[in-house]
Amino acid sequence: MEAILDQRALVLNRSWIPIDTTTVRRAIAWLYQGVAKVVEPETYEVHDFESWSELAVARGEPCVRGVAIEIRIPEVMMLTGYNGIPRKEVVFSRRNLYKRDQYRCQYCRCQPGSEELTIDHVLPKAQGGKSTWDNCVLACVGCNKRKANRTPLTAGMRLMKLPVRPRWSPLIALRVGRVRRSWERFISDEYWDVPLLPE
User: Fold this and answer.
1) Residues near 4 by Cβ (< 8 Å), separated by ≥ 6?
2) Distance CA 157, CA 147 (A)
3) Dihedral, CA atoms, 197, 172, 2, 65, nearest 10 degrees?
4) How does pLDDT run across 140-199, given as a tens digit for each residue?
5) Among candidates 54, 25, 50, which has minimal Cα distance to 37?
6) pLDDT tens digit sequence for 48-63
7) CA dihedral 75, 80, 86, 91 (to 10 degrees)
8) Of residues 168, 185, 179, the one with CA closest to residue 91
9) What is the pTM of this model?
């Protein structure tokens, strides 16, 4: 039961735009409180707590069981009173750094391939530099060795452009490593780089 309640459900705003994920536990609480409704992924039918709890649970289908009730696991929820899109910050990660710098060395402009690129701290860690958007850039192995433990200025090297936090924003930030197949109808595959759950 605990594992089922910790699974994720996709959250849509009132305009059916994906904005986040939540636990099944919270999704059922929202449903009961009237804060959200369940969206049936196959038919797009919308259910409140009463109509959702009246649906039959198929044999072998995961569900939450109470003393006198069985409730199907909601996979997609629509918030009834929220129509905004929360601003998400781009996570500082190797993948996003490569995307920001377009797989290009920020010193010599070459594109040798990801295996020949390294992350360079503009202000080296030894001098108090942090791993942040405005202090890290991609550098090819040769440029990184040449720069060594110096700043670009002391190494006589010039950056293509100053490193900054990307302006693009993810539509939705997943808190898990896997996506449910039923979510495909609500969000394009290009937003995900994680494997789908098997049916």
Assistant:
1) 24, 62, 63, 64, 73
2) 7
3) -80
4) 999 999 999 999 999 999 999 999 998 776 555 544 446 678 888 887 654 444 444 443
5) 50
6) 999 999 998 888 888 8
7) -10
8) 168
9) 0.56
The residue whose two tokens read 């198929």 is 58
Domains, the chain, in order of start with CATH, read 2-87+170-191 (no CATH), 94-155 (1.10.30.50)
Q: How far apart are CA 177 and CA 195, in angstroms?
A: 8
Distances (CA, A) of 134 to 48, 76, 118, 120, 164: 46, 37, 16, 11, 5
- Which three-class secondary structure state does DSSP give residue 145? helix
Give backbone dihedrals phi and psi of 28, rounded to 5 degrees, phi first.
-70, -40
Single-letter amino acid, residue 43: T
Give 5-63 pLDDT, tens digit per residue.
Answer: 888 999 999 999 888 889 999 999 999 999 999 999 889 999 999 999 999 888 888 88
CA-closest candidate to residue 173, choices 14, 15, 13, 22:
22
CA distance 175 to 20: 9
